[in-house]
Amino acid sequence: MQIWVDADACPKAIKDILFRVAERTGITTTLVANQFLPTPPSRYIKFLQVSSGFDVADNEIVKRLTVGDLVITGDIPLAYQAVTQGGHAINPRGERYTEDNIKELLNMRDFMESLRSSGITTGGPSALNSRDIQAFANQLDRFLVQQDGKKGG
User: Which residues of 12-102 form beta strands (DSSP E)?
Assistant: First the structure.
């Protein structure tokens, strides 16, 4: 298993958690972005810079994703692709995308997008706060324990 990070919009606090997890677990964690992002020196942390453009980073993650990999993203269409290809996805607020919820989340995202495109102001998500960061860390830990249990059993 590898961890892929949709890194252009990933908050620093979330990347810091992922860096610590990569070191602690030895799981290769690759940040994919269209601009340079500094990463700590580590054999487990990689950075892949892609060209600018709509969904270029997302498409690169999907292309490299293998069954069982984890994607960290707030992008619901990317999460949908990850989950439907046998991967896993968690957003930076700690919500796990699953086969049970991803279609509904994608439909809601598309509905909100259609409202915005028709001129209706829907507002955006609130700023990431300490509760969100803790929820992410807890969800990631639960996921890793679950995966470790599958390996051992």
Answer: 29-33, 45-49, 70-72, 88-90, 96-97
